[in-house]
Design brief:
The chain has nine helices and 18 strands. With 360 residues, it is of the alpha+beta class. A hairpin with a 3-residue loop joins strand 1 and strand 2.
């Protein structure tokens, strides 16, 4: 069985000495809605270790730093040259990018070893799981309705569940994008794309000559994925004044909740997915907490009709605002953000090319 090294993990066969770490992980799933291990005790739990010891399909996820096993990746043979992958991660180590780091490496290894297809199945209600699969380049191929059950109700009737099926082939561009460790969070610039109400639409005209062509582009500086500078709200400071060290570095990606700032405690860069935008109070609290960059997948960081107050609260404190990022392919967690704005002299905004990577 292969031994795979990643930035922070060693993916290796299970050992007898891994039992305490495995039991800690499985005991957390006693009442899990999506991945149940009912009735696991310290005594009978050794059956699960024995199963892993006897299989070449399970990789233990060992932290390089401490040697602790924090999860496992399953990669088992299926018909017609396919591999099925699955994963469990200790809850204490979730939302840190470990599952994505491990799964990307195992999928890459499977294709390198000649797999024709790699696929995974998950509960449609488990958004964190299917977002993880999308982040490593798998495509949703099917939604199977009430095709499986793991439990029965009190009357003995099966509790049926739906299933999403995700898969990738070796030549898929999406699969390769997922396996190389980068997630592009930049919206494509194209005619018909969404723009902030009142801003000019994106336009591109192309002249074709005998041996070359030239395109002309008309757009706002706030079109697509972009950053705002203080001068956007008549304060002092343009986009070129932001140091690259502020735009690039460790970032936390969170689904918006009322307590997002508490969950992001200590983070210099925060990316928020969903929500209705930040109020002036939230914006001031973020700036006071030391956030240097705050990003959103919305067209604006603030709710419609209340943009000025929130923008000023952030920009007046030097907080860079990243707007309209595509955060759909990355699960919650900690990443390295790479954000490269166009160098527009004297501009109050600038389109960017931005990526997330697990290599922090």
């Amino acid at each position: 069985m292969a031994r795979i090294m990643t930035e922070r993990l060693v993916l290796r066969p299970f050992r007898e000495s891994d039992y305490d770490d495995l039991f800690e992980m499985l005991s957390q799933l006693e009442d899990d809605e999506f991945e149940g291990y009912p009735g696991v005790t310290y005594e009978n739990g050794r059956e699960y270790l024995a199963y892993r010891l006897g299989s070449e399909a399970f990789f233990a996820m060992e932290l390089k730093e401490s040697g602790k096993v924090i999860g496992n990746i399953y990669c088992g043979d299926r018909d017609f040259g396919a591999k099925e992958v699955g994963y469990i991660v200790n809850r204490r180590y979730q939302r840190k990018g470990y599952a994505r780091e491990a799964l990307s490496a195992v999928i890459g290894h499977a294709f390198a070893e000649g797999a024709h297809r790699v696929y995974a199945e998950c509960d449609p209600r488990n958004a964190a799981s299917w977002r993880l699969l999308e982040s490593v380049g798998l495509r949703r191929e099917a939604h199977l309705r009430k095709n499986i059950y793991f439990r029965k109700d009190e009357s003995g009737a099966p509790v049926w569940k739906d299933t999403f099926v995700y898969a990738a082939l070796p030549g898929d561009g999406a699969a390769q994008a997922g396996m190389d460790g980068w997630i592009d969070i930049t919206r494509p610039l194209e005619p018909g794309m969404a723009v902030y109400p009142g801003d000019p639409a994106f336009e591109m005209d192309t002249d074709e000559f005998s041996i070359y062509k030239v395109s002309r582009i008309r757009m706002s500086a706030h079109c697509g994925t972009h950053i705002d500078a203080p001068s956007h709200f008549l304060l002092k400071g343009d986009t070129e004044d932001y140091p690259m060290a502020q735009l690039c570095g460790e970032a936390v990606l969170l689904d918006w909740t009322a307590d997002w700032l508490d969950r992001a405690a200590g983070a210099a860069r925060v990316l928020l997915r969903g929500g209705n935008g930040l109020s002036e109070t939230e914006a001031r609290a973020a700036a006071e907490a030391g956030v240097a960059l705050i990003g959103t997948d919305r067209l604006s960081i603030a709710p419609s009709g209340a943009e000025a107050a929130a923008h000023r609260a952030l920009l007046s404190k030097g907080v860079c605002i990243l707007e309209n990022a595509d955060l759909s392919r990355a699960p919650e967690g900690t990443y390295r953000l790479m954000c490269f704005p166009m160098k527009l002299k004297g501009a109050e905004g600038a389109p960017v090319r931005a990526f997330l990577t697990c290599e922090r």
